[in-house]
Design goal:
about 400 residues; mainly alpha; Growth Hormone, Chain: A; about 80% helix; about 0% strand
Length: about 400
């Protein structure tokens, strides 16, 4: 059995759980708004707050990984996200804000921790695919949120639905103890302890032209991804008059296609096309998808909306594994954790700002179309730049 299968299964399970928590508030929003007294579209602020605290947490991840090990860090992160989700289940705006900030503290270091695990066990020629398998946990978590959380809301109410999602994390924390000793000993043994400062991960990224280009593009792509996950359910319930279960099904379709897309694009980047070409193509596809999403109305057929969700999800959610594998390929294995942390700091900046920009544009115009067109233009620009011949350095 390949040495990377168990670490892959562990990191995938962790990624699914924390992503389930991040994608649960947008599904709760259409029902929770009546108890909270704030319109559902404001859930974009909650998403932004989650990633606001993810940024400093990600920067600290490299140093914490050296001291605690990747599994212990993962357990701590799951605990924080579960605590935060429990607070989000209270119908009080201030408590919800606090919960979102705590979720972000737990979410930030998850990907650097898993990248450190896989970089020490996965051969370079398989990284595009294997990293994509692990990153498929993000849309899988979103798909579970879209499919299961509406059912939990119907049977138990939105507050208990959030608490149930949080409790699943507690169960996973216990299961991770079975793998902690072996995996963490390997990571710590292969990691060079340094006294680098907090900003060292950013220095790694902005000191390398290839890494900087990837990171800047990822901020736009991540903004598109999170806007899709945050606003699709709300858009479909309001613009297309869908029920929450049908709208949640569209979100699940987008996320499942994103999970499959991550596997497919990872394989393509390992086998046929360069990562730059794959990322450029996906930027163009998500741009066209955003333009089409901006025109959704009650006159659209359910089938066509679901097909669009599939295409949108396969691109806007499908790029991450290729991106992270390329980051890992550019740097030495002992720097993967810090390089990933630095690159994700830039990535998360897009998730912090773009949902807020989306919500501001919606608040000013009263339309979901204009912010989707805005994001579509940005992704078109960044995707096109990957096709510009790169000068040798």
């Amino acid at each position: 059995m390949p040495a990377y299968l168990i670490p892959l299964a562990v990191t995938l399970a962790v990624q699914i759980q924390v992503s389930l928590i991040v994608f649960t508030p947008p599904v709760l929003a259409p029902q929770a708004q009546f108890d909270i007294g704030i319109e559902a579209a404001a859930v974009g602020i909650i998403t932004a707050l989650i990633y606001l605290t993810s940024v400093p947490a990600t920067l600290l991840s490299g140093q914490v990984l050296q001291k605690l090990g990747a599994i212990r860090v993962s357990q701590l992160c799951i605990l924080l996200t579960s605590l935060g989700m429990t607070l989000v289940a209270f119908p009080n705006p201030m408590i919800i804000i606090l919960g979102a900030l705590i979720i972000g503290l737990g979410y930030g270091p998850i990907t650097p921790a898993s990248s450190a695990i896989l970089a020490n066990t996965v051969p370079k020629h398989l990284r595009g695919f294997i990293f994509s398998v692990k990153q498929s946990g993000v849309p899988l978590g979103g798909a579970i949120a879209g499919a299961i959380v509406p059912i939990l809301i119907l049977f138990f109410g939105w507050q208990m639905a959030g608490i149930i999602v949080a409790f699943l994390g507690v169960i996973l924390i216990s299961g991770l103890n079975l793998f902690q000793s072996k995996i963490d000993s390997t990571i710590i043994q292969n990691t060079v302890v340094s006294r680098d400062g907090l900003l060292e991960p950013l220095k790694i990224i902005f000191g390398n032209q290839r890494l900087k280009e990837l990171a800047v593009s990822s901020s736009v792509f991540s903004g598109m991804q999170m806007s899709l996950g945050t606003f699709l359910v709300v858009l479909l319930t309001e613009n297309a008059n869908f029920s929450i279960t049908v709208a949640g099904g569209a979100l699940s379709a987008a996320m499942i296609s994103g999970a499959l897309g991550r596997l497919f694009w990872g394989f393509i980047s390992d086998t046929f096309l360069s990562p730059r070409s794959v990322l450029g193509f996906l930027g163009l596809v998500m741009s066209v998808s955003a333009f089409l999403t901006s025109t959704i109305s009650e006159s659209w057929s359910l089938l066509f909306i679901y097909l669009l969700a599939v295409v949108f999800g396969s691109s806007a959610v499908g790029w991450n594994g290729v991106y992270l594998a390329e980051v890992a390929n550019i740097v030495e294995s002992d720097k993967v954790g810090k390089a990933t942390g630095g690159s994700l700091t830039v990535t998360y900046s897009g998730v912090v700002f773009f949902p807020i920009i989306f919500w501001i544009i919606y608040a000013v115009t009263g339309s979901y179309a204009i912010p989707f067109v805005f994001l579509g233009c940005l992704s078109l620009l960044r995707g096109g730049m990957f096709f510009i011949p790169k000068k040798c350095s």
